[in-house]
Amino acid sequence: MSKARLFRSVLALGVVALIMHVSLPRAQAYDLSSLNGSYADSFSAFHPISATGPGSGMLVSVSGYAAEYEAGLYTFNGAGGFTARAVFNFSGAGIFNASWSQNLTGTYTVNADGTGTLTFFEHRRHFVIGAGGKELKYIGTDPNTGILVSGSMVKQ
After folding, report:
1. 120: Cα separation from own chain's centroid
2. Which of 78, 74, 76 is nearest to 31 (CA)?
3. Of 23, 36, 99, 122, which has the maximum CB count within 10 A?
4. Per-residue three-class SS string for the chain
5. What digits encode the pLDDT tens for the residues 90-138?
């Protein structure tokens, strides 16, 4: 085999290997370790202002809700647990944790496709991981509280 033919064969194999490596998109597989470190959080929500809310099985008009806002810092441990320091404003009528002194704790799950669930107290949020783990988009899916929430988190 001539040197030129050998060179062409090696070059062709190299090009094929490069094309296979570059052109095959690989789906990112997520797991608990995909959330690790601190994320800045912000949400806007509505909470029922009476005991008769969506959790009671009755339809409630908009006047049965009040606004709720939150800003916080969530720290994920990469193993299914998190802590958070957050301040909540309930329609200007009440502020919870204005001194940032109380920590919330909870758990989370992550599916291979980047979807998952946060759980703390009676609250539950379903989320999707975006930007390769740099952000979370979520909605509240509390089964009994009637709170309507959506928000996002950005990795710090």
Report:
1. 14
2. 78
3. 36
4. CCHHHHHHHHHHHHHHHHHHHHHCCCCCCCCHHHCEEEEEEEEEEEEECCCCCHHHCCCCCHHHEEEEEEEEEEEEECCCEEEEEEEEEECCCEEECCCCCCCEEEEEEECCCCEEEEEECCEEEEEEEEHHHCEEEEEECCCCCCCEEEEEEEEC
5. 887 789 999 999 899 999 999 999 999 999 988 999 999 999 899 999 9
Taking Cα atoms as reference points, which of 111, 118, 112, 116 lies closest to residue 75? 118
92: phi then psi, degrees, rounded to nearest 5: 75, -5
CA distance 74 to 32: 15
Q: How far apart are CA 126 and CA 108, in angstroms?
A: 10
Q: Is-contact 23 137, C-beta < 8 A?
A: no
Amino acid at 114: G
Residue 142 binned pLDDT confidence (cut-offs 50, 70, 90): confident
Residue 133 tokens read as 């783990």
Q: For residue 14, what are the CA distances in angstroms to 9, 10, 11?
A: 9, 6, 5
